[in-house]
Amino acid sequence: MLEEQFFDPKRHDRAGFNSGEPVLDEFLRKYASQQRSRGVTSVFVLVDDAQPDKILGFYTLSAAQVEAAELSPTEQAKLPRYPIPCFRLGRLARDGGSRGAGLGDVLIGLALERCRKARLSVAAYALLVDAKSAGAKAFYERYGFVAFADTPMRLYLPIR
C-alpha cells in the first residue's frame, strides 16, 4: 500500500532514487535534508509499505506569496491589493522506474490535500509552481493550474 511520509534521510534511500531529471535527483540526494532541517522547505516522500525505504516519489512545499496584480483579473477582483499568501510546490518527481503508474497524479493529489489541511490553520490562497518544461506545464494544467500572464511557466491553483 502506498504511503506518504515526511522525508527522513536516515530511513529513506536517496541514492536509489532516479527520476531521470538530474536536478531533481541531486536535490533529493544533496540538499533535501539540509533545506528541511533549516526550515526552507518541507519534503514528503511516497513509499510502498512493503519497501518503506524505497522512495517512489517526492514533493516539497514551502510558504510563498504573490502580488495580487499578477493573478488573473477574475482572481484580482476577489482579493486585496497587498501580497497574497500562498504555498509553493517547489519540486515534484517520481521514480523513473514507475513511469505510467500514475504516481505523479498521486503526488500532486497528496500535495493539494496537505495544502487544504494546512489552510485550516494557516491562511493561503493558492498553490504556486514553476514548471520546468512544457510537459511539466501541461501536467499541472490538467489539474486546473493557471499560468501567470507575464510568466507563462509559473502557474497557480486557488485552493478551495
Draw up the topology in text:
Blueprint: E1 2-6, H1 22-37, E2 42-48, E3 57-66, H2 73-78, E4 84-94, H3 103-118, E5 126-130, H4 134-141, E6 146-147, E7 154-158
Parallel strand pairs: 4-5
Antiparallel strand pairs: 1-2, 2-3, 3-4, 5-7, 6-7
Q: Please count the beta strands (DSSP E, at least 2 residues each).
A: 7
**Terminal Cα span:** 28 Å
The number of distinct helices, counting runs of at least 4 residues, comes to 4
Give the total of domains: 1
The fold-level CATH name is Aminopeptidase
Identify the CATH architecture.
3-Layer(aba) Sandwich
Helix content: 25-40%
Overall, the morphology is globular
The ordered H/E elements are: EHEEHEHEHEE
The whole-angstrom Rg is 16 Å
Across the major sheet, the strand order is 1-2-3-4-5-7-6
**Major sheet, described briefly?**
7 strands, mixed
The oligomerization state is single chain
Strand content: 25-35%
Average pLDDT level: 95
What is the C-level CATH assignment?
Answer: Alpha Beta
**Which residues sit in consecutive blocks of at least 5 with pLDDT less than 50?**
none
CATH superfamily: Gcn5-related N-acetyltransferase (GNAT)
Structural class based on helices, strands and sheet pairing: alpha+beta
